[in-house]
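Example record used in the benchmark description.
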Amino acid sequence: MKTIKTCTIEHSKITVNGNLIFESDNELFPEFAKNAYKALEINYPKFHKMDNLSKLAFLAAEMLLKEDDHSRTALVFANKSSSLDTDFKYQNSINSQENYFPSPAVFVYTLPNICVGEISIRHKMQTENAFFVLDEFDENFLNDYSEQILQSGKAEKVLCGWVELYQENYKAFVYLLTL
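Model output (structure tokens):
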């Protein structure tokens, strides 16, 4: 397998193949994501409805997938916190006796694989996808899983990597693989 491209998002910076693509002042993730979306001239209005984990994964994927047809690209992501950041927000909406309004729009994002679905919809992907919850980034595991997908012929490329977001700690490291 060979790596075609990489993207890292952390500390209010986006890099692709080690080159700085976007940087902003040290700001909270929601503001950083909105500013990156605008500055990078991404046109996908549904972005604004996504939870923060989906926005993180979406931005990273967009940096690597935006130019080509990816209907035959699979997705394999992992993180440690699953969708816990959104889960807490949803639970708080249930717990509030004064403002008991559990939002279906928030509930939708209480599974980590929803970010994979958002990317699949955007890029019309018709292949395999998986989202694993692991204690730490395990590149060998992700690569082995991706290699099986590629060797099976179910996909021509695999976008895989780590997309972790919990409260204000976030990091995405994604890379595009092919045989």
